[in-house]
Amino acid sequence: MQALREIGGSASATELIEHVADAMGLTDQQRAAMLPSGQETRLKNRVNWATHELKEIDVLHYPERGRRALTSLGFEVNEDRVKELRAEFEASKPSSAQEQQEGAEQADTVTAWLIRAGQRREHYDYNLEHGLAGLGWRTPDLRSVSGRQEVEGFLRSDYPDEKAKTISTWASQMLRLLNVRVGDLVATNGSNREISLGTVTREYRFDDDDPAWPHAVSDHAKSRSAITRIRVG
Question: What does the DSSP 8-state code read for residue 107?
C-alpha cells in the first residue's frame, strides 16, 4: 500500500514488485529466491499475496489486467485499520478445517466424486480413452506446495482478474483431489445426457505434460471398456 502511494497510486505488477524490493533494500539473491515449488520467486509471491489481500478489503483494485491501483480507501487508511479490515474479512471466510475433517473421514470410506470433463465436456472422450479424471489448472504438483495459500497464490498469478471467492473455490477443488482414494467412484459428465462411472485405481498424480489434466486420478487402469455409462433420464 505504501509502495503504491509512493509510485503515485497506480503501477504495473512488475513495477510494484521492483519498487517494493528497492524500498526494502533486497539483494539480488533475495530477489531471486524461489519458493520450495521452484515455480515462482518468493518476492513475487509475497507481493501478489499482499495485493490480493488488499483487494479483498477494497484498499486497491485491478483497473486492467496486470495493473494495480489504490482505491480512495487505499489513500486514506492507515496500517492499524488495514489489520482490522483483514481480521474482519478472515473472520467471515469459511475455515479449511472442515475440508481437513472431510479428508480424514473419506480415508476410511468409499466416496463418490463428480469430476467434470471440462467446461464444455470437451475432454470426455479423452477421459474414457485414458482412464483419467482431473483438473486443468497449470499449478505445480499439489504435494509440493506448502498449503492452501500457496495454491491460491499460483491461481491468482495466472488469473489476476478473478474474484477472491472464485480463486478460493478453485483452490478447494484442487486440494480435494488429494482426498480421492483407491476404490472411490468417479463420475464424469459427458455429452448426450451421459455420465460415466469409474473406480479409482491410482490416487493423485501430477503430469505437467498431460494436455488435459496435469492434476489427475486414474480409474480402472485406463480401460475404456471398464467404464460404466449411465443415461440420465
Answer: T
